[in-house]
Structures are given as structure tokens and as C-alpha cells.
Specification:
alpha+beta, six-stranded mixed sheet, five-stranded mixed sheet, 12 helices, 11 strands, 37% helix, globular, binds adenosine-5'-diphosphate, binds magnesium ion
Length: 353
């Protein structure tokens, strides 16, 4: 059973009237003139972060991935809580972790108001819950995409995925492979599979791999949640989601909830200079399937193109039009420069399949 099948079967229940329950980036609970937007994310050592990651970055990321879910609803952060299961009480480590956490909390006006702390015999576990406010009828829900909408994505995609793959690759193997393997595959390769991308990265000369890691690492370890953009898109965008598990998979959640299909242009995918310098098949694999991007993917009617431009300007975060929503069963087609659909699209991240 997939992660999402498991959640649907065991934890999704019909929500009481007026309440948005399981299935979106946040739940919405009515609370006076606006609704409370609430989301929880769990981070486990060895699964979501390396044990030796810089604690200040980890503190930042633990809150960032949660703020990203508020952004995806168009909600304004109000407060957060922090659950900590700690293998040991290391004061210097905790001071750095707290510095990263509070700095981001201060940046977005999201004070830490509670939590729980225990000892852990199984590595470090973090659980953050965020509370935000949004006008319920105007929240950016996953089920609001309509045929004819443009599909947009903020910032750039794929950097975090490349950084993660480089960090996972064994440095010695990478150096040895560089002697015998040509790192430049033919551009005729339409799309790398995940394992092909790993093999290509491992075959990079050590200096090139180090440069690529230096260019992409910040996006993995210190993602910037698009909180301002999410709020600026309220009343402008139809549906939105944050890209945590890969663009195709996360856009797939919008399509499934909205009952429509999407057509994307591969050449339109926004790439950082570091990714744009990679072979197209490698960059596209990371951009379409790579997790941890924490960009917003959203849909908006064509008539709102100017309004989207104003929202991105106000937020200081660019967005790129990458395709459109069309009628049909929930699937995404990605077209190359000749209008031909790409095959072998990456599936995105699922904890159980
Ligand atoms: P996101 O990537 O936006 O954090 P997820 O993919 O983790 O969302 O989860 C999908 C949906 O399932 C969300 O609405 C989330 O709140 C819900 N969900 C996940 N795990 C559980 C659980 N154990 N109990 C109830 N709801 C859950
Ligand atoms: Mg989300």
C-alpha cells in the first residue's frame, strides 16, 4: 500500500460541515472571521536529514517545511509548536538548532508557543505543527484547479534533489568512476531515470561534483518557504500545493482532487544556472521528480496572468508558467520542444512504495 493509500484507508474520514480535513496541505478549522490553517510535519534522522547536518540549518528546515504548507494554503503564520525526541542533551547543538528555528520563526511572525521534549533511544525525531490564518472561502485548496487554468511554479526546481543525490553518493566511488566513465551522456537521452541520474552524478569528476554540490546544497538544507507568495496569491490563484515530494507527484494531488489533467512543457521548467548547465535529461529528472523543493505549484485562470505577475513582484519571488490544466482523467503529460510527450517520467517520493 502506498503512503497515500494508507492515509486514505485508515485516517481519512468525512470531515464535519465547514471543516477541511485530511487531504490538503493544511486542515482548515473555522475560527471567527478567518479559518485556522493547521499542518504537522515529522523529520527523522536518517530519513529526512543526515545525523551530522549542521544544527542551525536543521532548526531552520524543521520550521520551513511546515511554513511551506501554510504558504500552499495562502495562510498567514500565527504560531507553532515543537516536539523533540533527543538522543542526548547537547547544549551547543541545541543552541544552534534553536537559533535556526527562531530566526525563521521571527522572519515570518510565527512564535514557538509550546511543544514536548523527551529522550530518544532511536535517533533524533522532530515534529513541528504550525497554525496560520486564512479566509476559508479564499484558501488555496488542492481541489480548485479548472480546465483552462495555467500551471505555474515558483522559483527553481531540482537543486535539492541533486544535492541530496551528491551527498548520498560515496565520494571514493565517485572519484574512481571519474577515471573511466565519460560524464557527458548524449543529449538524445530524453529523460534520466533516478538510478541513471545517480550513476551520472557518481561519474562526475570530483571537482565538478564538489562545485555542483556547493551550488545546490543550500536549497536542500535551508529551503525558503514561499509564505509571502502564498498570501499574495489569495484571490489570484485557484489551486496550490507545495512541492515536497516532486512536481509530478504533487501536481498529481491537485489533479486528483480537482478531477482534471495537466499538460506541461519540459523546456519551461525553471532551473537554476547550476541545473541549466547539466544535460537536459538530468535536469528534467530532478525538476520533475525531485523532492524537498518547497516551491509553490499553483494554477490560475489565463485572465489572471497580470495579477500573478503583480503577486510575484510583491512577494519578491518569481514564478514561471509551465503548462495548463485540461479536461480529462488526472494525469500529467510533459511535452518536449517538438510537442512529443516524454516517456519514463519520474514518479516522485512515497515512503511506502
Ligand atoms: P504534505 O506533503 O502537504 O505535508 P502529506 O503528503 O504528508 O502532506 O499528507 C497528505 C495528507 O494526509 C495531508 O492532508 C495530511 O494532513 C494527511 N495525513 C498524513 N498523515 C496522516 C495521519 N497519520 N493522520 C491523519 N492525516 C494524515
Ligand atoms: Mg504540502
Amino acid at each position: 500500500m502506498s503512503e497515500f493509500g494508507l492515509i486514505r484507508r485508515h485516517f481519512q474520514r468525512p470531515a464535519p460541515a465547514g471543516l477541511l480535513g485530511v487531504g490538503d496541505d493544511c486542515a482548515l478549522i473555522p475560527g471567527g472571521s478567518s479559518a485556522w490553517a493547521i499542518s504537522t510535519d515529522l523529520l527523522l534522522e536518517g530519513r529526512h536529514f543526515f545525523a551530522d547536518v549542521e544544527p542551525e540549518s536543521l532548526g531552520h528546515k524543521a520550521l520551513a517545511v511546515n511554513l511551506s504548507d501554510l504558504a500552499a494554503m495562502g495562510a498567514a503564520p500565527r504560531a507553532c509548536t515543537l516536539g523533540l525526541a533527543l538522543p542526548r542533551a547537547d547544549d551547543a547543538w541545541l543552541a544552534a538548532f534553536a537559533r535556526g528555528f527562531h530566526a525563521l520563526a521571527d522572519q515570518w511572525g510565527c512564535p514557538l508557543v509550546g511543544g514536548d521534549t523527551t529522550r530518544s533511544d532511536h535517533g533524533l525525531t522532530l515534529s513541528v505543527t504550525v497554525f496560520g490564518a486564512v479566509s476559508a472561502p479564499r484558501a488555496l485548496r488542492r481541489d480548485a484547479a479548472r480546465p483552462g487554468d495555467d500551471v505555474w511554479v515558483s522559483g527553481t526546481l531540482g537543486d535539492a534533489d541533486i544535492a541530496l543525490r551528491l551527498l548520498l553518493a560515496h565520494p571514493d566511488r565517485r572519484a574512481a568512476a571519474a577515471i573511466t566513465t565519460d560524464p557527458a551522456p548524449s543529449d538524445a537521452t530524453p529523460l534520466f531515470h533516478g538510478t541513471g541520474l545517480d550513476a551520472w552524478l557518481q561519474a562526475l569528476p570530483t571537482a565538478a561534483a564538489a562545485r555542483l554540490l556547493a551550488d545546490t546544497r543550500l536549497r536542500l538544507e535551508r529551503p525558503e518557504p514561499r509564505v509571502g507568495l502564498g498570501q499574495a496569491l489569495v484571490g489570484v490563484a485557484h489551486a496550490a500545493i507545495d512541492v515536497s515530494d516532486g512536481l509530478l507527484q504533487d501536481l498529481g494531488h491537485i489533479l486528483a482532487a480537482s478531477g482534471c489533467a495537466a499538460s506541461l512543457q519540459a523546456d519551461a521548467l525553471p532551473l537554476s544556472p547550476a541545473l541549466a548547465a547539466l544535460p537536459a535529461g538530468a535536469a528534467r529528472c530532478a525538476a520533475l521528480g525531485g523532492g524537498d523543493a518547497y516551491e509553490l505549484c499553483f494554477t490560475a485562470p489565463r485572465a489572471h496572468r497580470d495579477a500573478v505577475a503583480r503577486a510575484t513582484q510583491r512577494a519578491g519571488v518569481p514564478a514561471t508558467r509551465i503548462g495548463s490544466i485540461v479536461a480529462g482523467v488526472p494525469t500529467t503529460t510533459v511535452l518536449d520542444a517538438h510537442g512529443q510527450p516524454l516517456s519514463g517520467l519520474p514518479r516522485g517520493f512515497d515512503h511506502f512504495s
